[in-house]
Amino acid sequence: MATPSAAGFLLVGIGGGSASGKSTLASELISLGQGDVVVLEIDRFYHCLGDHSDKHLANFDEPAALDFELLVSVLEQLKSDGTTLVPKYDFTTHTRAGFERFDATRVVIVEGILALHDARLLRGFDQSIFVDAPASIRFKRRERRDIAERGRDAESVKRQWDQTVHPMHSMYVESSKEIADLVIDGTGDLVVAARELLARWKVQP
Asked: Which residue would you say has higher pLDDT here, 1 or 49?
């Protein structure tokens, strides 16, 4: 069982491939945690792309796309003060739209495809979790999501998957499974998985 650090809260990293079930698991943990669980999405920490005309073609699945320095600094302040400021990222303009307050609760989850990639983050986590799902399932989930929620067409989704999402998963994400404290099946019942995690953390759902 993971135990809280000296900061007074449990810091948990949840990584895994795109559309593996990470966000669903995190949402269930928030819902069942009844105020004791909060999630910090790594997607907030993308670098600003400014006025580049081709910014929509940027590779958002490689580590260089993320400001890990800022994320590490934010978590250090959260551990020190119990509160910090986190960036708001505007995905329509690919720029940072200011900052907002973020307060620690009993469990703080850092969630994203590369949550387990940076060694500094790993050292700071009280527990690391990898959510796993086959590539074929993850692609179908992503295709449905991007078409329904982001106005994409099937061809562009497939092109992005083939050019960046899948290659970057193979290069940077898949290996996280070997170093994670716990691997969760993203095709299973994530409500049950969330309940089991909360029980481990002594958070009563």
From this structure: 49
